[in-house]
Amino acid sequence: MSPDKLVMMANQIGRFFVAQGPDQAAQGTAEHIRQFWDPRMRAAILEHLAAGGEGLDPHVRRAVEMLRDGQAAAISSKPGQ
């Protein structure tokens, strides 16, 4: 998948969470990507970040940085979720 497509998708996810404020938007976006994106997609967005992260909205950039740094934690602690 092209970096442009991944950036568009990540920014769309980020827009969903933006009403929760910048910190929660970053955490929610990171968690969504961690839970639902294919590992190859996650690797590609991390490569895009390493190359400068062009086009990522600020809180989405932070979300990808959180993924890179292992800071995205599970939202739910309930078994089976």
Protein traits:
mainly alpha; 4 helices; 81 residues; 65% helix; Formate_DH_dsu
Number of domains: 1
- Sheet with most strands: none
Oligomer: single chain
Number of strands: 0
Q: Fraction of residues in helices? A: 55-70%
* Average of the residue pLDDT scores: 91
List unreliable stretches of 5+ residues: 75-81
Structural classification: mainly alpha
Strand content: under 5%
Termini separation comes to 28 Å
Q: What radius of gyration results from the CA coordinates?
A: 12 Å
Shape: globular
Query: Count of helical segments?
Result: 4
What pattern of helices and strands is seen along the backbone?
HHHH
Summarize the structure in words.
Helix 1 (3-17) crosses helix 2 and helix 2 crosses helix 4 (58-68). The chain has helices at 3-17, 22-36, 39-50, 58-68. It starts with a helix and ends in a 13-residue tail after the last helix. It has one domain (3-68). The relative contact order is 0.20. The longest helix is centred in the first third of the chain and has 15 residues, at 3-17. The protein is an all-alpha fold and 81 residues long. This is Formate dehydrogenase. It holds the Pfam family FdsD. InterPro entries: Formate_DH_dsu.
In short:
65% of the residues lie in helices and 0% in strands.
Secondary-structure blueprint of this entry?
Blueprint lengths: L2 H15 L4 H15 L2 H12 L7 H11 L13
Helix pairs in contact: 1-2, 2-4
